[in-house]
Amino acid sequence: MKGRQAIISIAILLIISAVPLACTSAGNKIAVISLNGSIEAGGGSLFFGGSVITPQLVRSQLKRAKEDGAIKAVVLQIESPGGNVAACQEIVNEIGEVEKPIVVSMGTLAASGGYFISAKADKIVALPGTLTGSIGVIAQVANVKGLFEKLGIEMEVFTGGKHKDMYSGLRELTSEEQELMQKMTDQFYDQFVRVVAEGRGLSEGKVRDLATGQLYTGEQAKELGLIDELGGLETAIDLAANLAGIEEPAVEYYKPEVPSLLSSLLGMNWQKLQSIIQMQSLGAEGIILLETIGNPYPEPQYR
């Protein structure tokens, strides 16, 4: 009887001692989130757009990582040429709200907005041949007056506010309007510089010296303090595990959320769908015309 009790007691002890080990193994995860494409506020064009990175996509993926207690750190795989200023800023805010360590693993290209959304990560890893940096902003106002004349189109424009038609593309900008555009562009540039300075622990003066809009290789970026380590995804995972204080982590790869054709169609308003259908039968001139009329405001880009 005593022997049987001893066996049962040993078995219970073994079970109890095994539970913490099982919990520890199950609770030491690194989430790998792939962000690939241009950075846009919405989902991009159905026929002409490729993969895009949107604030909604980043928010949903990070929300999953934040709510999963087993996830101790996050690795963001970033492959992006940049994109819309406001979308980049919204994504940076989402990343800043994650209390778990975040490490960025740069691929072939993580430039301009791609670097912007990386800047406030705890650590940045890039390959020696990665192209990154391109810290700057561009804003463009199309002037299609000549195209309208070629197509025999005359527009009657009525405005309230002397600068209201400056983005219409139907005339040249005045010197005053060019100054307004430059001031706006400079403000977005200053915002970029501040984000990099805060994220990388550099002075704004140092960042301005680097923020010429030029690309840097991974090796150059490391020398300049724009990234932390040279390496690939495995290096980033090891670094994330180290920041989280865990050994031999389990890696969970989050699948990118790709909208179906039907959901893309349903998510588009009728006017946009009509424009896309019209574009299929138009030449380059018609596409430029539709784009100008459909979006009369410049979209400043970290690109």
| DSSP strand count | 12
- CA-based shape: elongated
Q: Which structural category do the helix and sheet elements fall into? A: alpha/beta
* Low-confidence segments: 18-25, 45-49, 260-268
Number of domains: 1
> What is Rg?
25 Å
Query: What is the helical fraction, as a range of percent?
Result: 40-55%
C-alpha termini separation: 78 Å
CATH fold node name: 2-enoyl-CoA Hydratase, Chain A, domain 1
What does this structure look like?
- It is a single chain.
- This protein has 303 residues and is an alpha/beta fold.
- The protein has a single domain (2-302), classed as Alpha-Beta Complex (2-enoyl-CoA Hydratase, Chain A, domain 1).
- The protein has twelve helices and twelve strands.
- It has helices at 2-26, 55-67, 85-96, 113-116, 145-151, 175-200, 204-210, 218-224, 233-244, 261-266, 270-279, 284-294; strands at 29-36, 38-39, 52-53, 71-80, 83-84, 102-111, 123-126, 131-133, 215-217, 229-230, 250-254, 301-302.
- Helix 4 links the parallel strand 6 and strand 7.
- The longest helix is centred in the middle third of the chain and has 26 residues, at 175-200.
Comma- or semicolon-separated keywords:
elongated, two-stranded parallel ribbon, alpha/beta, 12 strands, 303 residues, 2-enoyl-CoA Hydratase, Chain A, domain 1
Task: List the SSEs and their pairings.
Blueprint lengths: L1 H25 L2 E8 L1 E2 L12 E2 L1 H13 L3 E10 L2 E2 H12 L5 E10 L1 H4 L6 E4 L4 E3 L11 H7 L23 H26 L3 H7 L4 E3 H7 L4 E2 L2 H12 L5 E5 L6 H6 L3 H10 L4 H11 L6 E2 L1
Parallel strand pairs: 1-4, 1-11, 2-3, 4-6, 6-7, 6-8, 7-10
Antiparallel strand pairs: 5-12, 8-9
Helix pairs in contact: 2-3, 6-7
